[in-house]
Amino acid sequence: MKSLLLLLLLPIAAFYGAIAFFPSVLAWPCGRLPLSIPLALGLIWLGFLVTLLYVRRANRREGQS
Amino acid sequence: MNLAQLAVLALLVLSLSLTLWAARRTRTRAEFYTAAGRIGAWQNGLALAGDYLSAAAFLGAAGLFMSQGYDSLIYAVGTLAGWPLLLLLFAEKLRERGHFTLGDILAERFAEPSVRVLSSVSSLLIVLFYLIVQLVGAGKLIGLLFGLSYLPAVLIVGLLAVLYVALGGMLATTWVQIVKACLMLACGLALAAGVWMKGGGDLAGLMARAETLHPAGSGVWLPSKAMANPWEVLSLGLGLVLGLLGLPHILMRFFTVPNARAARASVCWATGIIALFFTLNVLIGIGAIVFVSHNPHFLDAHGKLIGGGNMAALHLAQAIGGTAMRDVVAAVVFATIMAVVAGLTVAGASSLSHDLYAGLLRRGQASEAGELRASRWSVIALVLLAVLLSTWFQNQNIAVLMGLAFGMAASGPFPVLLLTLFWPGLTARGAVAGGLAGLFGATALIVAGPAVWVAVLGFSHPLFPLASPALCSVPLAFVTAWAVSRFAD
């Protein structure tokens, strides 16, 4: 659970930290888009990925016990 | 009768039929509060999404994107981050304990009545503030859409909520929320597809047009000036992430599934649906900038959007699919309001009847029939109070109430629940002191902040510089709970 918490919270903290203290980072180009858009969409789907990983892991653990 | 009225009528017939069906299956306390734990994982996932995605999310997110661009995504990221955290920290533990309310979870560890009172009062306050926001929004929207004045509009919404919840309990509420979540997702998909097609399938072209039309230019893809204060950004992020973990109507849904496996899967479903919705909202927001913000059909004589920013999604529907599509989206907005009001009502009424009446007044000795009767009267009392307060708040800034509900949820129930579940050192006095410090701290800081002290009370400078209190009120709750548990007992 700790690794999933870190996988979720570190990027989210970095995102809000960047908006708060280094907003110019978000304007860096990422292909034809500024970094801000893929970053936000990536973090939105990171939330889903973390829930999916946790559910798979917990179901496997439950199946083994 | 126009298409919007027909669509609303069809939704009313469907939801009332579901309520009558559910009423025949709601005869016990467990059935009323938790649908006897028989809700499946995907059903609970849809209901969680339906409970969380209010009309503010549906209409407000598109309006926010249109006016402030990227800020809408900053809110979405914080909102989504709360869901996996909810799964990792609470979902299974709540289900495993299998009770009716949050008060039950706390009372299992602490026998002192003060802990149950704290839980009940904090749940009721959060639900009431949230309910007032929904009712004020409902009154204004229904007025705009169907030409009804404010009071009849909120009375209709209140009456329907009473019918759904008092008759069908959690089962009817769940199915109303499932229907709403499906309709809202279909609407989001249709609007995004419409924007895509109207833009000729050229996303880069749409984005370029949005940059040209938006006052911020290319700054539309970056945080606005509202995010200029770094501490405000951090406080907002913390409040958004943790607020979800203290919302009673969301937490209560984990008592409705049969086991921990279903609780886990339901969060997965909800997170996927909400993530999809916020992703679609980027396209909808771009569409609102391109097809609505400069379209004279949707602007008044002063160049402002007719009906305000919250109408952006409805105007966009009209721009894409004409009046027919706007009417269907309006009907879905109505269903959205009803579903969220029903979810809040069932959570608030459970707290009144189960925690206060059965747990404290009857000291756990209430009969099944007596508690069920009390829960139905609680529904009526809660909705009446919310309707009355909403008439007083109709001309106030309701965003303050929403901030208050989220700030309280992040600072009161969340720290107490987290410490109760994970810290053996917490004492009953520590839980009560921490919860009270969080609740009163959040309230005091919001009142002393710019949203009330300056905007409502008219002072020139706020006593507390941030609009969002979480950065101070959440640590205050934790430190108080720790200090009182450690040193006062």
TrEMBL record, chain A:
This is Uncharacterized protein DUF485. Keywords: Membrane, Transmembrane, Transmembrane helix. The chain crosses the membrane at residues 37-55. InterPro entries: DUF485. The keyword Transmembrane helix applies.
Automatic annotation (TrEMBL), chain B:
InterPro entries: Na/Glc_symporter_sf, Na/solute_symporter, Na/solute_symporter_CS, Sodium:Solute_Symporter. The chain crosses the membrane at residues 6-23, 44-66, 72-91, 117-136, 142-166, 178-197, 233-255, 267-292, 328-353, 374-393, 399-423, 435-457, 463-484. It is found in: Cell membrane. Its main location: membrane. CDD domains: SLC5sbd_u4. GO terms for cellular component: plasma membrane. Keywords: Cell membrane, Ion transport, Membrane, Sodium, Sodium transport, Symport, Transmembrane, Transmembrane helix, Transport. Pfam families: SSF. The keyword Membrane applies. GO terms for molecular function: acetate transmembrane transporter activity; symporter activity. It is a multi-pass membrane protein. This is Cation/acetate symporter. Belongs to the sodium:solute symporter (SSF) (TC 2.A.21) family. GO terms for biological process: plasma membrane acetate transport; sodium ion transport. The keyword Oxidoreductase does not apply.
